[in-house]
Amino acid sequence: MWTNHVTLGTGALVVTAMLDLLTFALCVPYCETTDGKHFDILLEMVASRGRSLFKLFQHPSMAVIKGAGLVMRALIEEGTMEVAMRMQNLALAEGALPRHLLSALYTRPTDGRLLTLRQLSRHLIMLWITGHPIAMALLRRILPAGLLRFLDSTDTVPSSALEEERLNNRDNLKIAQDHAMKNRKGAQWVVIERQFKVVEK
């Protein structure tokens, strides 16, 4: 039913409600409470309807575009390599890469919602071109060579060019390190546990 509404351009409330459900089930930070097995199944089910998800990027509502972008980000970041490659290929086939490039470069930060959409577009472009030579070749044909060389620069970004981060990001390495530190026992407890094991034998 959801894909029918997306294809026909009807049922905006149904589409929005489904995107909200997917956002809370798959997107950071809400997905922390989703069971791993259900998360993987839902991720694969949404990935199989990739064209419908890309069609939502043409929706007149910014809330729908943002929801579709967040779900797309979850598909690429949390899904398998196959899913990521499929989404990268669909981004080219459906024309989403140029559309988001336009949004990422020319959206003026007059409204907080537009700023969030611009940051999401920039993040999606990065996900779509990483490790995809065809998308990178398209970017080379669109952007001037000097600008592309500037993107590879190692210089630090001036503080005046930085903007407030409006997207929730998940640092898996930091989460794993924090979890390990929290569960790590002190050296004295390890010695005491060894002594108890010796006494029990």
UniProtKB/TrEMBL annotation:
It comes from the Eukaryota. Residues 1-27 form the signal peptide. One of its GO terms (cellular component) is endosome membrane. Residues 1-197 form the DnaJ homologue subfamily C GRV2/DNAJC13 N-terminal domain. It holds the Pfam family RME-8_N. GO terms for biological process: endosome organization; receptor-mediated endocytosis; regulation of early endosome to late endosome transport. Keywords: Signal. PANTHER family: DNAJ HOMOLOG SUBFAMILY C MEMBER 13. This is Putative secreted protein. It comes from Xenopsylla cheopis (Oriental rat flea).
